[in-house]
Amino acid sequence: MIDLLWPRYVAAVTDQQLVDWYTHPVPNGPRVSFNFVSSLDGAATLNGRSGELGNAADRRIIKLLRRTADIILIGAGTARIEGYSGNLIDPDDSQWRQDHGKSTQPALAVVSGGLSVDPGMPFFAAAAQRPLVITTAEADPDRKRKLGEVADVLVCGQRSLDVDVLIHELGLRGFYRLHSEGGPHLLGTFQQAGRVDELCLSVSPVLVGWPGMRIAVSSAKNPEPSYMHLEHVLRSGDMLFLRYLARQDSNTAENRAAPGVPSPSKGS
Ligand SMILES: NC(=O)c1ccc[n+]([C@@H]2O[C@H](COP(=O)([O-])OP(=O)(O)OC[C@H]3O[C@@H](n4cnc5c(N)ncnc54)[C@H](OP(=O)(O)O)[C@@H]3O)[C@@H](O)[C@H]2O)c1
Q: For residue 261, how far is its CA from the centre of ligand 1 (angstroms)?
């Protein structure tokens, strides 16, 4: 059972209520939503994967987020470690999609600058539909060709990934609801590009106690913070589900000083 705790209390919410609360209008082009689970001490994995941090309610929310997505976007590390393959949604979700004029399955894309993904892995072999591989112009041409046999290869950026180009190109293909399930390097990249419109964060009631990866890892030397706005809080047992939206004015000095938003410390 999942209850809404904030901005008002609703006990035992329905799937339709969850879909309504998680589905944002997309009138102005593609929108990027990330979904992650984190431990109380900020770890993105337990025993090397995210699955053990989740629970049945978490899986219920992921399922509903996938139901409304146009495309599921993941990084190469997540594709390898989290074992994405086959149908990623259930028949009832496919039916819901058809009833709402969508394809039976959301499309699937993997971001891989170095094309480290193996064309033989189940991600490709068992995919419900031909996936996209998103890479750069300077990626190895041989690997591009091999992956081109099992996927559509989309070039977004010359030497490094250009997130704006990626979002634009997906929009041109009719993908407006971009739903990403990570991983941390992909979120770090989008965050530094200022293109995280939404973060759905499940907070798992466990202290991992291990210096593992956090949910966002950026390669930038001095990463810029992104301030977000709390949209709702759900609860199932000891697990919380937080939905945050990007603040439009996120990096103004005034916003940083706003109540509830930490100000940068001065001289401490
Ligand atoms: N807590 C959660 O909700 C959650 C969610 C997802 C994953 N995870 C965990 O996170 C771990 C994997 O972390 P990760 O950070 O390696 O995952 P990731 O972001 O999915 O994968 C990283 C890889 O994706 C490609 N990539 C990402 N950003 C790129 C960029 N800007 N340019 C070019 N390529 C880019 C690169 O592939 P190439 O090497 O091919 O260039 C990179 O090595 C796993 O243990 C997984 O279980 C946790």
A: 28
